[in-house]
Amino acid sequence: MDAIVKKMPGVKQPVGRGPEVERPTVEEAEDAVRTLIAWAGDDPTREGLRDTPKRVVNAYREFFGGYEQCPLDVLSRTFDDVGGYDDIVMLRDIDLYSHCEHHMVPFVGKAHVAYFPNDQVVGISKLARVVEIFARRLQTQETMTAQITQTIDEVLNPRGVAVMIEAVHQCMSLRGIMKPSVATITTQFTGVFKDDLAEQQRFMMLARASEGI
Questions:
Q1: pLDDT tens readout for residues 65-86
Q2: Which domains does the chain have, with CATH numbers?
C-alpha cells in the first residue's frame, strides 16, 4: 500500500465542543435531502426514496455525534496512584471512521495514541473516546491529529504525547484521482516524543508491531 506521509507542524488547533451554530429543524434537514435527491436526478417521492430523508438525517445524527460531546470532559477524571509507573501508555489500532470536510465522504483507518504520564493517568478507554469524538465531526485528517494531541497534552499535562493516524480517504478512492489503495499517514509529537528521537522511534515501532514490521 502506498502512503502519503504528512508530519504536522506545531500549530495548536482548537479543542472542546464544536462551533456554536444555529441548527436547522429536522424538517428543514429532511427537505435538504429531498433537494439533493432531486438534484442527483431521482424522484424523492417514489416509494424507495420516500423515507430516505428521515434515514439520512438519523444517520447524520450518528455520524456527527461528536459535536454533542466535549473531549475535555472525557479526560477530566484522572488517577494519581500509578504505583511508580513512568513509561509509555499506548493504545494501538483504534478503529476510526470520519468524514472529509471537503466532500463529506468517509475516510476510514486506525489511530495510535500514546503519552508519557507525569503525575496522573486516565482510564485507557478515555483515549479511544477522545479519538471517537473528534472523528465524528467533519474533519481533515491533519486537523484531527492535532486536536487529539492537543487535548491529551492540555488535560493530562504529560511528559509527551504521540499520535499517528493512518486512513484511506474515499474522496480519493471513489472520485477524483481514483486511487483506492493509498493510505494517508499523519503524526504529531510533543514533549519527549518530539525531543527524543529514540522515544519517537519506539512509538513508531510499537504502532507498527501489529503489522509484523
A1: 999 999 999 998 888 877 778 8
A2: 3-17+69-211 (3.30.1130.10), 26-63 (no CATH)
